[in-house]
Amino acid sequence: MPKIEVCLSPELVHLHDLKNKIVVVVDIFRATSTMITGLANKVSSITPVAGLEACRNMKSKGYIIAGERNGQTAEGFELGNSPLSYLNNAYAGKKIAVTTTNGTLTIEKSKKDAAEVLIGAFLNLQATADYLIQQGKDVVIHCAGWKGMFNLEDSLYAGALVSVLANEFDFDCDGAIGMKALFEQNQGDLKSFLSQASHAKRLQNHNIDADIDFCLTLDKYNFVGKLEGEELVKVSLNKVV
Amino acid sequence: MPKIEVCLSPELVHLHDLKNKIVVVVDIFRATSTMITGLANKVSSITPVAGLEACRNMKSKGYIIAGERNGQTAEGFELGNSPLSYLNNAYAGKKIAVTTTNGTLTIEKSKKDAAEVLIGAFLNLQATADYLIQQGKDVVIHCAGWKGMFNLEDSLYAGALVSVLANEFDFDCDGAIGMKALFEQNQGDLKSFLSQASHAKRLQNHNIDADIDFCLTLDKYNFVGKLEGEELVKVSLNKVV
Questions:
Q1: Which reaction is the catalytic activity of this chain (chains A, B) (predicted)?
Q2: pLDDT-derived band at A241, boundaries 50, 70, 90
Q3: Cα maximum dimension of chain B
Q4: Residues facing residue A119 across a β-bridge
Q5: Roughly how many angstroms between the first and final C-alpha of chain B, as a whole number?
Q6: What is the pLDDT of residue B55?
Q7: For B185, which of A8, A155, A185 is closest by C-beta distance?
Q8: In A20, A26, B72, B80, which residue has its Cα 20 to 30 A from A123's Cα atom?
Q9: Contacts B194 to A, Cβ<8 Å
């Protein structure tokens, strides 16, 4: 049986061996939720870029640039980090380059060694789980956290994914056991549980409560977000019975 | 109101500012539980030492040396890391030098900047909480984890301490919020919940199930374990009404 591990912060990823494994990067509020929403709304591609300057330079290459630092749109960027911006195919056919406080760094730290990098969100939880079952490889769920620290929303997503995969994967990892229990014990009222969280409070202060609701929507989309080279692409999957 | 934070691994401690704060180091299985038990059983002092060699060298200075690596007594050491060894005042009046896989390193990483370093265990949870309320300083609970990774038992202790202190301290820290919920939702059957944990399994493999039961005993002792210089000492406290 393949194994599943949870890495609670990019500052701990050196403790995990990513070789031959599928890494699922998650930054629920909001990078990976936004990327999945962009892909669902027919952007042509999304290129995650770790640094602000490098991302800004993509503009001259024909990209729409999206940049967020500390929860707000970074100076000189066309788009911030709200999934709602991409709804109604608003950027259909466009190439997007994106940099965020935590999410893009976590992708960067995952891609060197992993066999595959996926991006995870509640928006496509079941599709990601189905894909992982189909592939049958070992999995590391890599939480972006907040500036290196544990955060609640990414850890709860990790717990949710472990919970869905529990019959098909082994998990001898305390992060997986702990977060699975935390998710299962709070899934009935995830939003109210998360409203205590520091990052949710931060977002509320920015008047983007609607983003929180959207990012916590379960299984709105039925595809997987996968890194191919430098670009995230949409992978549809055959229905798993 | 003073603040409480949880640091889930010594690999994340650089993200926390320890200055002017009381750091509570916890390594439930078994370093800090064993230290509290030693102090309760009248050892003259306990000196935590991060390195195996440095600890071994303490023998010639009149110390009883206790050494554990990967859950087992290290070669050439008189004592391992079982709290039961110290019961019935077995080492009363002796000076102990101790090194363990995770706990002593975590103490080492805490003591440079912190105002005070305490060692935490379920065995004296309420006494530690009472002391922290008396002092009124900001607190960081520093989990030893397992070789840098998150572990369940130390994180649950952190959650337990946050839970006891919740009315007297602010906590705007996802680690504190998450672990408090995890503890409160599983406190009715902590042992069975922890039996899934990787470290508990490891201990069971070593036939030291009795150690687990002992380390999960709540409030057996009514004093605080505190680092004074290089030594851990027992601090009794005035009863808090």
A1: (2R)-O-phospho-3-sulfolactate + H2O = (2R)-3-sulfolactate + phosphate
A2: very low
A3: 48
A4: A25, A225
A5: 19
A6: 96
A7: A185
A8: A20
A9: none
